[in-house]
Amino acid sequence: MPRPADRSAPAGALALLLLAAGPAGAACTAPSPPPAAEKPAKPVLPPKPACLDAKAGCPGWEAYTYGDQIKAYNAQLGPFRTGAEAYAGKLKAFVDASVAYANCEMKTLQ
């Protein structure tokens, strides 16, 4: 004769989950956004010398100076990108936490 299925394990797991969830009236915690001070500043593109558009072109020293400024600008882009991606990750985490907070608040209304 087949034995009846043991249903105590799922019920026990459900009870444990309910106990871990805390009291029914637990307050929802509002998330806080990442500090604006952590937002990286975009590097400033150096101004293009007017002589670049002139028919005769730029004197060598001015062209080299501008080239050096562009190289310095390009060197700043890597760290800026890393910082911007990190800040964007924090913003995404804030948005996700905001959704969780809104869902929690909605559950308190039920």
Terminal residue distance: 46 Å
Biggest beta-sheet profile: none
Structural class: mainly alpha
Using only C-alpha atoms, the radius of gyration works out to: 29 Å
Q: Averaged pLDDT, please?
A: 81
Query: How do the SSEs run, as a string of H and E?
Result: HH
Give start-end ranges of low-pLDDT stretches: 4-23
Helix content percent band = 55-70%
Signal peptide: 1-26
Keywords: Signal
Jot down its keywords.
single chain, 110 residues, 57% helix, signal
Describe the structure.
The chain has 110 residues and is an all-alpha fold. Helices cover 57% and strands 0% of the residues. It has two helices and no strands. It has helices at 8-21, 60-108. The longest helix is centred in the C-terminal third of the chain and has 49 residues, at 60-108. The protein is rod-shaped and about 75 Å long. The chain starts with 7 loop residues before the first helix and ends with a helix. The model is unreliable at 4-23 (pLDDT under 50). Keywords: Signal. Residues 1-26 form the signal peptide.
Topology:
Blueprint (H helix, E strand, L loop, with lengths): L7 H14 L38 H49 L2
Give a brief outline of the structure.
The protein has 110 residues and is mainly alpha-helical.
